Each structure stands twice: as structure tokens, then as C-alpha cells.
């Protein structure tokens, strides 16, 4: 996720970092060069004048814009739902830790379940990104917990189970009554809901046929467009084609980038930063000193 102050309107025209322009530059240059060739040949293809004008492109362009808008709206809905689910992880983790600290008669602070909650957040991040959580789990958990998690395929779900087992054991020991245990199950259940929501987004992409239809239509539209414009605007054809192609290519690339919000691209969710925030918040509630890590300096930077 890119974090930066909003630049001046003139600088905004030339922003590269965070823009999809780098991703679409090859096809944009190719389309512009083809439009230039069509302009030089004045719309002729092997001595045959292609009989097109701008009318069909006006109709197709409107339909294509609506289709792209729907695709991008769907992609952003997935992105925002993912962000909402990670906000729920913070809220529900805080609620459960607060209950553990203020509503129980346990003789010692609940260090183990809090460590498991922190490990759950990091394990979920690793599961969503397909990375190895071993280092984070070894840093946060006792060896017996790490050994138990080695064979688990869904480590975040197993960690929530282990938190529930700790609550069960303390209830049996009389540290809190069953009514209080039931109340603590509420935030624990919501953490399970957030886990399932993240897994649903990660495991259910937008149907591939949408991408195929949009991709084919955009490229066919941009290839044929110079034939429809060359008789009307002449030498300005490559410029107009480049502008229209940039709009369509960029919208397609943007939708493809944010539809998978758990990746490590510049515009994806900053799961590393959110995991550290949740860990720091829970540790602070436990009375541990704040992290000595310095905050990012003001200006442009990327959170992963």
C-alpha cells in the first residue's frame, strides 16, 4: 500500500510510483505505433481502404466503459471487504484480550492466549500470501505449540482452537464461570468469521471469463480504432488512440491488481503493517513497553 501526501495537481500528472503505467507501457507503445502506421497509410491495408468511421466505436466504447466500471467496482468491493475483515481482527482481538484481563480471576496474566492471538494474525497473513510462518511462530509461541502446528494445514484455525482450549481449561479450573466463557466465545467466533471471509476472498477469484471478454474487447477496439478516426482527425489519430488506449488499458490493469488484495504489489493491502499494529496493540494492553521501532518518515513510502 502506497502512503504519501497528495501531490500538487501538476505533479500528479507525472506520478509513476503506484501508477499502472509501467505495467501497460509495452502495449500502449505498440498500440500508438500501430495507430501511427495506419495514419501514414491513411487507413489502407494491403491497398484496401478499411471502411470504418467513428460511429460504431462510440457505441462500443460506451458499452466497454460500463463493463470496465462493473469489473472495477467488483474488484474494489473485494479490496474493501478484505480491509474491513482485517479491521475486525484488530477490534475482536482487543475485545478478547480486554475480557481476559478484566473479567477473570486467573492468578496470572493470560500471556499464552494473547501470544496465540498475535500468532494467529501473523499466521493468517502468511497463509493468504503463501509464505512460511515458521519464523514468526517460533518467535511468538512456546516450542510445544510450534510442534503441534507443524502438521496443521490451516494454522490460523488451529491457533483459534488452541485459544478456545485455554478458555475451556480455565473454566474447568474455576477461574471464570460458564456465562463468562460464553461471552468470550463471541469475539473468538467473530475472529473465525474474519478468517473464513479472508479465505473466501483469497480462494474465489472473479470468474476468468470476465477477464477474457474485457481483454479481447479492449485490444480489438484499440486496434480497429485508428481506422475509424483517420479520415476524421488525420494526423491527430495516434494521439487520440494513445489517450483512449491508456484509459482502457489502465482500468483493466487496475481491476486486475486490486481484485487480489492480499498480495505484495504496491496497491495491495499492507498486511505486514497491519499485523505489526495488532501485535503492538495487544502487547501494550498486556503492559509491555512500546516498540522502539521508529515510525516511517513523512513522505512517500510503501507499506507491505
Taking the alpha carbons of the first and last residues, their distance comes to: 6 Å
Question: Given the helix and strand composition, which structural class is it?
Answer: mainly alpha
Rg over CA atoms, rounded to whole Å, is 27 Å
Shape: elongated
* Poorly predicted parts: 292-301
- By DSSP, the count of extended strands is 4
Quote the beta fraction.
Answer: under 5%
Relative helix content:
over 70%
Strand order of the largest sheet: 1-4
The helix-strand sequence is: EHHEEHHHHHHHHHE
User: What is the mean pLDDT?
Assistant: 86
- What composes the largest sheet? 2 strands, antiparallel
H/I helix tally: 11
Features:
two-stranded antiparallel sheet; single chain; 4 strands; 304 residues; 11 helices; mainly alpha
Structure characterization notes:
The chain has eleven helices and four strands. It is mainly α. It has a two-stranded antiparallel ribbon with strand order 1-4. Helix 3 (55-102) runs antiparallel to helix 9 and helix 9 (208-233) runs antiparallel to helix 10. The protein is elongated and about 90 Å long. It starts with a strand and ends with a strand.
Quick recap:
With 304 residues, the protein is mostly helical.
Secondary-structure blueprint of this entry?
Layout: E1 2-3, H1 9-12, H2 21-40, E2 44-45, E3 48-49, H3 55-102, H4 111-129, H5 134-140, H6 143-150, H7 155-172, H8 178-203, H9 208-233, H10 237-258, H11 271-285, E4 301-302
Antiparallel strand pairs: 1-4, 2-3
Helix pairs in contact: 2-9, 2-10, 3-8, 3-9, 3-10, 3-11, 4-7, 4-11, 7-8, 9-10
Amino acid at each position: 500500500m502506497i502512503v504519501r501526501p497528495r501531490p500538487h495537481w501538476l505533479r500528479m500528472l507525472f506520478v509513476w510510483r503506484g501508477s499502472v503505467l509501467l505495467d501497460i507501457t509495452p502495449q500502449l507503445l505498440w498500440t500508438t505505433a500501430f495507430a501511427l502506421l495506419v495514419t501514414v497509410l491513411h487507413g489502407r491495408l494491403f491497398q484496401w481502404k478499411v471502411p470504418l468511421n467513428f460511429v460504431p466505436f462510440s457505441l462500443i466504447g460506451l458499452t466497454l466503459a460500463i463493463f470496465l466500471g462493473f469489473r472495477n467496482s467488483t474488484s474494489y468491493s473485494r479490496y474493501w471487504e478484505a480491509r474491513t475483515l482485517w479491521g475486525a481482527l484488530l477490534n475482536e482481538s482487543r475485545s478478547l484480550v480486554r475480557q481476559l484481563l478484566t473479567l477473570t480471576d486467573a492468578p496470572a496474566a493470560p500471556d499464552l492466549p494473547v501470544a496465540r492471538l498475535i500468532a494467529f494474525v501473523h499466521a493468517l497473513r502468511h497463509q493468504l500470501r503463501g509464505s512460511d510462518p515458521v519464523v514468526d511462530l517460533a518467535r511468538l509461541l512456546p516450542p510445544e505449540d510450534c510442534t503441534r502446528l507443524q502438521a496443521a494445514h490451516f494454522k490460523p484455525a488451529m491457533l483459534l482452537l488452541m485459544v478456545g482450549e485455554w478458555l475451556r481449561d480455565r473454566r474447568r479450573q474455576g477461574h471464570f464461570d460458564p456465562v463468562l466463557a460464553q461471552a468470550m466465545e463471541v469475539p473468538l467466533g467473530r475472529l473465525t468469521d474474519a478468517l473464513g471471509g479472508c479465505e473466501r476472498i483469497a480462494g474465489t477469484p472473479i470468474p476468468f471469463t470476465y477477464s477474457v471478454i474485457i481483454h479481447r474487447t479492449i485490444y480489438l477496439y484499440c486496434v480497429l480504432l485508428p481506422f475509424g478516426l483517420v479520415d476524421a482527425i488525420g494526423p491527430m489519430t495516434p494521439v487520440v488512440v494513445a489517450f483512449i488506449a491508456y484509459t482502457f488499458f489502465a482500468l483493466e490493469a487496475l481491476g486486475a491488481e486490486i481484485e487480489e488484495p492480499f498480495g505484495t504489489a504496491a496497491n495491495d493491502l499492507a498486511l505486514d503493517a497491519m499485523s505489526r499494529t495488532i501485535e503492538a496493540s495487544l502487547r501494550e494492553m498486556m503492559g509491555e513497553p512500546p516498540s522502539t521501532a521508529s515510525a516511517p518518515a513523512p513522505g512517500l513510502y510503501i507499506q507491505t
